[in-house]
Structures
1.
Amino acid sequence: MKKITSLKKSKKTVKSLDKKKKIKKEIKKKAMSTKSTKTVKRPGKKKKVTALPVKNMLDKKEVEKKLRTIIAKVMEIDEKTVTPKTRFIEDFGMDSMMALEILAMIEKEYNIEIAEEDLPKIVSYDSVIKLTIDLFNKKKK
Amino acid sequence: MNVLGNNALDLRKTKILLVTDSFLFVDRVTYFDPGKKVIAEKDVTGEEWFFKGHFPGNPILPGHILAEAMIQAGTIILLPEHFLTKTMIQTDTFLRDLADRAKTVNYLTATKIRFFKITRPGKTIIMTGTPIKVISSAAIMHVEAHVDGELIARGDFTVARTKNK
């Protein structure tokens, strides 16, 4: 009889231990999956949130969307025709004045300064995105 | 900083722009901070050649003439300081710059302008120009025009700067 009760007890303790293990695993999984430095809150324990504010991070998709709008506006084309393979001079006959206008609009939108030497980089959609992100990140450092 | 101090520069007497006579639509410059800001004025007298036809018996300053005045005012930003200051002396540098400037022509390549109010003779237009982007071969300027403290027009202009052959 004694053995049975002890078995029952141990079953309970095993179950609660398993539960605890499961919770710990889930917490670890969550912590690993999030890319930010945010620490996962445990019930009953308060920890400081050290995540970076959203303003400092440039979302690539948003940049792509915004730049597509700027390029289409300056070159007077449909936004849908601006694709990752788009080359402005060959595909749309862009000239240096249009490139300058695109440059000025990007500067205003992201509060960055693009040097005259970088003007030749405004030749394709991909290169414009890369230039914008690089300069923005450089400025934030 | 206004390099002109309290002295306005009369452009009918001192030639600083390539346009002259009946195509000069800026009368004086009252504020000039090289590369940063310019304030220029145009007196709309009613004696101008375009009022005869625009419109007979109902003189109104044509929008495209106002736009031209704003562009002329805006391009003054691109000039070096000694073109406007009365202390300029005809040094070798000045003469070389003058000859060089005479060869540099600003070609208008794009405009984006809005007109808010009409202007009739008897008014003075005050035009304020600031640069949006300036490089060696081109410039984009922003110019606003006011009459009696009210905004009458606002626009951005792009010019290509090339050497005259």
Note: The two ends of chain B are 35 Å apart (CA to CA).
2.
Amino acid sequence: MRKFSPFVRQHLGALQKQNGDHPDANLLLAFAERNLSSREQAAMLTHLAECPACREVLALSAKMSADDAASGDVLRTRGGPWLGWRLAAAAAIVCAVIGTVWGPLVFKRSSEITSPSIVVSRPPVSVPEPLFPKESDFATAKPQMPAKGKKEVSRQRNQVELADRYRVPSLEERYRVPSMTKLGVAKAGTEAETSDGSISITAAEAEVRAALPRPPPALPPATTVAPAPPASQVVVPSLMFSAGSRAASRQSLLLAQRSNPGSVWSLEGAPAEGTLRKSDDGGRTWRTISIDNATRFYALSGTGSNVWVGGADGKLFHSIDDGMHWTAMSVTDGDMSLAGAIIGIDAHGDSVTLKTDSGATWITDDDGVHWKHK
Amino acid sequence: MSLYEKSRAADFGFTEGEFGELLTEVANRSLGEGHSAQQRARFVESLRVDDLVLARGCAHGNGAAWERFVTLYREKLYSAASAIAREDGIARELADSLYADLFGMRVRNDGERVSKLESYLGRGSLEGWLRTVLAQEYVNRLRREQKLVAFDEAIEYEARASSLSEPRANNAQLADATDAALAALSSEERLLLAAYYLDGRTLAEIGRMVHAHESTISRRLDKITLNVRNQIVARLRAAGLSKRAAEEMLQADVRDLGVDVRNHLAQERQL
């Protein structure tokens, strides 16, 4: 544990309240699932800072959510041989189709392509009606004996689907991979599936594919669960980190965060509008994020809960809490300061690289405290 | 697709009119007065209407709703209880108790049974709400049990601890500076400090609570503690102390002894 004066700790403890009113489960849940208004959020933070009981509830709830995710992993391995074969066969068919249609193109271009790959999160898919056996005894909770035959296979399949629906990434998953997926450049309908269900593409591939007849979109329409984002927002599009000439072709950016399940950022309509939106439930619902109404944003990136947004007039904003609070950043190096529009951001941990429309590059390795101009 | 169709409210016996009334009631309970029609519409759109009608259907005793609820959530409820309670018996009791509340074992004066599901407002997933309610029940139970600690033991412990941590006059400046520095923090910063230093949670646990990566929490805690320390030192210097004296006062506070003895006493009590 970090060193912190016990005296200060004692004073912090004196601020804690042991009695008083507590927010109900709806508000705690909305906080946990990030559905509070800014006013409610502020009030909830104030209460949590002073209420050990509600912190305990929140922590337990988060723990159960993580445990549930882990049990989802277990369920997945219990699908039985039939389910395993079915999934394998389905995966093989998908791979064959993708390979037939896009394979030659991808492999032909791959030796020439050095641009960064893109991964965009997939919106939630609607789940079929569960087929669990009916239970009428609400008072007891005896473990069910497994049924046999087709019914059992059907039940297990639905368990897997439900587990998928409610699953959040395990801690191992969160920390093994980069905390935020790469983003990228693409035009609508040019994505390809990767093994983890995300959609991947490279910038150059996107250009080539854009010239071809459009394949069926890999992203299912977000209208499976309304309210859907506006059509222009059901996205694959655009350029995450690019040369200035590409900025004009950009449509919108998606930023999916593995560290915060369900958290997805969208920079929509850049450069004409550059509206920043966020979804906390994997794309089911979206809200517009207002940081600076006078600024049009062109670039978006992040790692973990760090989110960087940049745009016209060299405006750069940084959030370290996944968009709850924003800090306007000043980008200077000695006497030089960033001029023009920021059209690309690439953030990895404390290291952030900015590209401007004049072709300049600015780099920081300490989370924006010091910048170097290149 | 309308919200009514999306929610599948008809499956659980809601007419469009009743569904509209339900949304109005939820908006009134959540938002209160003083919101525009547009704000209310946006709020309603953000609700988990499918879960909401399921919960209300159950609360109203709809058989199809209960069938779906049991299918989807009963097993999860019991496994969630097992996850938080260390003993199987307690977990089972906790889940059974909540299950009874959800079903509605209490009866109003007018003879209507009251289901806890009536209080779900759709502001998050029903599954998340069940977890939260379960956690609240568990924490309430723990706090009730803690109050049953032997009375004389508690009195003796408090007396010994407080005698060791009597405020000293020469620490008044430090106390003022500390209070001012803590008051200058945002509520979120105080939450992080309290979760880490008072509750003893790990960075990963705090990260899960506030939706941030543990490395972010680590960085923020470093910044906050440094900031608090610097502010205290600055205030002590403003009160006339040298920098060295201020830092020494912060590090070698006599009341640290009291805290250590408290910890020691707490360990003795556990033995």
Note: Confidence is low (pLDDT under 50) at residues 73-84, 103-148, 162-251 of chain A.
3.
Amino acid sequence: MRQSDPFAEAALRQRTAAKAEELLSASGGSRLAENILFFARTLRAAGLPVGPGKMLDAVEAAVAVGVDRRDDFYWALHAVFVNRQDQREIFDQAFHVFWRNPKFLDRMRGLLLPQSFDEGAGEEDRIALQRRVAEALRGNLPDDRGSEKEEEEIEVDATLTWSERETIRQQDFEQMTSDEVARAKRIIAGLRLPIAEVPVRRWRRSATAGRVDPRASQRSALRSGGDLMPLVWRKRRRRHPPLVVLCDISGSMGRYSRLLLHFMHAVTNDRDRVHSFLFGTRLTNITRALRAQDVDLALEQAGALAQDWSGGTRIGACLAEFNRVWGRRVLGQGAVVLLISDGLDREAAAGLEKEMERLHKSCRRLIWLNPLLRYDAYAPKSQGARAMMPHVDDFRPVHNLDSLADLAAVLSRPPLAPREDLARWIEKARA
Amino acid sequence: MSALQTTARPVSAGLPASVEEVLDLLGSGQYVADRSLATVLFLALKLGRPLFLEGEAGVGKTEIAKVLSETLGRRLIRLQCYEGLDVSSALYEWNYPRQMVEIRLAEATGSSDRDTLASDLYDQRFLIERPLLQALRPQPGGAPVLLIDELDRTDEPFEAFLLELLSDFQASIPELGTVRAEHPPIVIVTSNRTREIHDALKRRCLYHWVGYPTAERERAILAAKAPSAPAALAAEIVGFVQRLRRVDLFKLPGVAETLDWAEALVQLNKVALDPETVDDTLGVLLKYQDDIARIQGSEAARLLGEVQREAAAQPPL
């Protein structure tokens, strides 16, 4: 997945190690630098973005704080390695395994003997490590233990009991042909979401009269020695508001999931500030996965991230989680929410209305795309749909969603006379 | 970015030399910090790196910068971020009206030599310095404390602009050249996380998540910041707020709300909490109607009962 140049990496590693040695020899540390480097590599393998620059920073920070107090040392490394709140858990676990239990690796070696498995493995040893940390630690034992590495690997699996969570169904998507990719791009380029661009507080040059740009006018006046002052104009820039896509991937939506993911991927790569979430029985943020340029890779990652494909739906609970955890983080700048769901809820719409109301109040515009419309006489009568209907700004039902082109056509339809069309649907929901 | 580039250090005169000293320093400014925060702050000062503080609203992120400037005797320069913040209001702007007058004067005296006029017009006299440029200038008392507050409120282009400033502490003004800070300022960046800040910017900073304080620390904060509240009342307030934070609310009360509430109760001449008072003053703690409706009445009485039972079981200190 990641392209690598082994020579460049090796050279970089050598340089990093040399520089770290240099830093440390000044402070008299011995194996500390080496250990920090191993620790940094462990973190990197566990998915934290740790580069050589950070390793050096970490050594510098450790030298500055000293190793007299464990908590100081912890927070010094924390300040360097952790960039986001959600990385704290992984850092914390890795730190404690790596630094508190220097005998951890020895113990693993001891586990090769069956009898010591029962004795040595007390409660403390069975801490359910996050899988990524466990994998990272396994792959990154310091080299001088290299010879025993392979045997140890087998045993680590025996001690580190991480719990496999409920579920678990992952989704495989057919790969796209390059022809399909090209067509998808064309369709998305022509897509006009029913979202108006909004003026932002930045300016652009304008040929026609708007506001005077004093700085540019001043400069152009200088060109003529100050006798004439041709006015230069500027206007407000316009920009798409951020877009948040919440997509239902429960069983009833199963046949659309590939299509919808393609759509989300295309939109993510087409404009900035798009956040994508999947929900079924739980909420998954797949924004980072979809940023991969390659559509197959992106879909594969997204498919692996969400664990509840084609299961039930708990719309209310998922929206509640979205509102609580993500709402304030992604809806901050007047975002438009595109909610893709058929409104069929396993929990009989428990708590759904309240959460819809909260969501509606937190965003600029809430658009509900419903692919359930199998026949013209459809009315949003399921409990879920009834709860959702009063709180959307725009309702887009669609027959037979078979292609991206259909989807784009539905979304590109200009909004009908404001609220009039919607009022008809709300009435249907009440009837 | 290699370590060598970042070794430009702030003036170390008067800066704390250990984590304990940072704790003492903050303590002298009435800021009760936990050790993790003090460690990061110590590192930021020692390594000359910007400190990126993220956390819920009202946990004391901005306060750190204020206390630092006060206790270190440095000038505090604050840049409040908002959407559309641009170079002309963050870094510098030319004083156009004065430039216009200058052009007129040049005309009146008949000297319209282009080069001299240009160099006259783009002179320091006509430069309006905005917070970021001020922070690069030497200040009395040493390098200033630069507070970039609520960075998440700006847009991405401004973040990108900050990259150069925060890593090299220099800014370029086309007409004047590059302004470089002799002593880099102490930079504190705060964010309420209404959106994610780009990794490139975070990478240049030391990161710290400022969480809600423990009960013990919150009592210490109340004692320092609201000394007029009697100890028994303060203990009840902290007990109640701490319990409130365990309830699944939309917006949990921060330390600022705790202090406001203590202040409000003192103004109402209360020496102990009772259910009616809690109900009446809940708006100081909770700012969403859903949350208030949920807590008001029986839930508040239940939490209060727990607090008072606990206080009774534990003799006052």
Note: Chain B touches chain A through 51 residues (CB under 8 Å).
4.
Amino acid sequence: MSGATANEERVLVRAPTGGDSLNAAALIERAGFKAEICESLLQMCDAAKGGVGALLVSEEALFGASLPGFMEMLKTQPSWSDVPIIVVTSGGETTQASLRAFNAFGPSGNIMLVERPFRAITLVSTLQVALRARRRQYQVRELMNNLENRVAERTARLEETVSELEAFSYSVSHDLRAPLRAMQGYSHFLMEDYGNRLDETGRDFLTRIINSGNRLDRLVQDILTYSRFTRGEIEIHPINLEKLVEEIVQHYPSLQPPQAEIKVQTPLVPVLGHDGSLTQCVSNLLSNAVKFMPPDRIPRIKVWTDNIGPEVRVWFHDNGIGIDPAHQNRIFKMFERAPHQATYDGTGIGLAIVHKAVERMGGKVGVDSVPGKGSKFWIQLPKA
Amino acid sequence: MSHRKTILLVEDNGDDVFFMKRAMKSAEIQNPIQVVTDGQEAIDYLEGNGKFSDRLEFPVPHVVLLDLKLPHREGHEVLQWARQQPSLKTLVIIILTTSRERSDIELAYQFGANAYLVKPPGAPQLVEMVKALKEFWLVQNEFAPVASVAKS
């Protein structure tokens, strides 16, 4: 099944004289094809829009002001279409006119030359080949349409599944938190109200329950944050990075002296991003930077921006424990942590959140690090 | 005669009610606290329907702490309904929920919530939040005159 309409099987005929056109058309009709005579190249272009199997044009007709329009029509065909053109030439010696006609279509023109005087059977067989090729094109069109429909259908189904999964993971995490908060609350009250009636070991057990509860809660909250960044639309605006970093540092005592020194090399180049997402990224990166420190070292973090073409790279350079190159690619994935970081508190989701959020803002994220010599994390976003 | 302003807590989770009451005690909030456990009950209370018709026992609240995920009618629905009632337009309604979803927050403010608070993870943090809530809404804040008219 080619799915071709009657118009798509017709041969459009353009000859310089009405008599020639009539003769050719009669010949075509006699052979069982459908022919339609066009008064000009322009009319041929118009007719072709309604469907065409092949074009039959005499070389004398391929001149004049409407030729560029004709060529344009051929060039702007849909990807499946390459309409066959049969050019009737004057025959005998290769004339300038024949050459010009031939060259006009360029090396990739789908043309066949039939020389005058031709026998009827020559033209019919040429047309037969042309229309056969054209039907193949219709089949390609059909296949492409089917394929597109199938892709659209499957994409829709996939999107549905993904959003169901996201909604599922959200509600699971959400429902996990309710009993967890109850456990946290009551274990806290148990310590508060009855702690003095327990011995050292009892209190130690209770403390462990509380700490594990807190850790599980952070984990669930981080998963929720992550899942929030995978859903919903975000709006991109210019962001004053300097102000954003300053506000984050002011918000967390752990980022301020004497606990840490954060040096911002002003000016920071403004970026395009989403305020909430970028705040999340920067605070995750800064809190990581101060967290992964040898016990006796004061965190010193340097923040600056570099222009990289139309983008800005924001650097966060710490003096912490650093990351083994073998693990540098993994740390941005969910639950992945460099092994020696097990002694440090964290859920292994913070950088996955950064990765996801930056990705959603159309940016990139990465790290340069030498173990023992600190890490240089960066995020790259379009310039504001 | 007591002009202690009533707080209405709309919360379906019994543990959360317990935690909230305990945190309010720690924060030394002396205002009477009424609790309803689903959205429909919240509407009935605010309207003074059925068992809530006795306004001496169930006074019109000055502050509503409203959870979002509720049985029967969700918190957003209660909020939207309240803002359509002339007598409840100026009632202080504070969302108190576990949801940090953008859409939940957005919708709450669209429907006219006065504030949006996320239930903190631990008991000490909850006490801190309730203390802040008390200082702002019960000590510093002036209530709209309509709210006191609604008392009658």
Note: The mean pLDDT of chain B is 90.
